[in-house]
């Protein structure tokens, strides 16, 4: 049985997780950047609703969001690629389905819902992997 749809969804999900990983690393790189911190302070100075002390809190939130994106993307990328290799050639479709669904849940939850695209793709691929049954062949030669 061909598993082209599951493989395609898994690869697209892995690419989306890779993009999410790059975004998380970008957020982490902004944490210690003096220019970024100065930009936050400038925005806080122009906005009368923000206190100057709020910039430290915003920088901490960006850093924690960067870690959440990075961890969620790494988990999704690793589980997705392992699932793709397991389903290729219809080797272990049940294991691949479980890995896809685990990657979907973990990616979606750890990233606070921002990783919904790879999570949805992995979830669809996981359900397809678990539900599809091979065609039964009957011997008609008697």
UniProtKB/TrEMBL annotation:
Signal peptide limits: none
Domain DUF4064: 2-108
Keywords: Membrane, Transmembrane, Transmembrane helix
Protein name as it appears in the record: DUF4064 domain-containing protein
InterPro entries assigned: DUF4064
Source organism of the structure: Bacillus gobiensis
Transmembrane domains' residue ranges: 7-30, 67-87, 99-125
Pfam families: DUF4064
């Amino acid at each position: 049985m061909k598993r082209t749809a599951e493989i395609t969804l898994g690869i697209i999900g892995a690419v989306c997780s890779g993009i999410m990983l790059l975004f998380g690393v970008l957020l982490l790189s902004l944490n210690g950047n003096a220019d970024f911190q100065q930009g936050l302070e400038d925005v806080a100075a122009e906005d009368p609703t923000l206190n100057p002390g709020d910039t430290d809190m915003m920088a901490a939130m960006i850093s924690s969001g960067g870690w959440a994106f990075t961890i969620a993307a790494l988990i999704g990328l690793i589980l997705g690629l392992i699932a793709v290799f397991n389903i290729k050639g219809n080797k272990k479709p049940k294991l691949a389905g479980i890995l896809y669904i685990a990657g979907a849940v973990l990616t979606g939850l750890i990233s606070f819902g921002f990783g919904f695209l790879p999570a949805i793709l992995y979830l669809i691929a996981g359900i397809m992997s678990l539900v599809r049954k091979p065609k039964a062949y009957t011997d008609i030669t008697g």
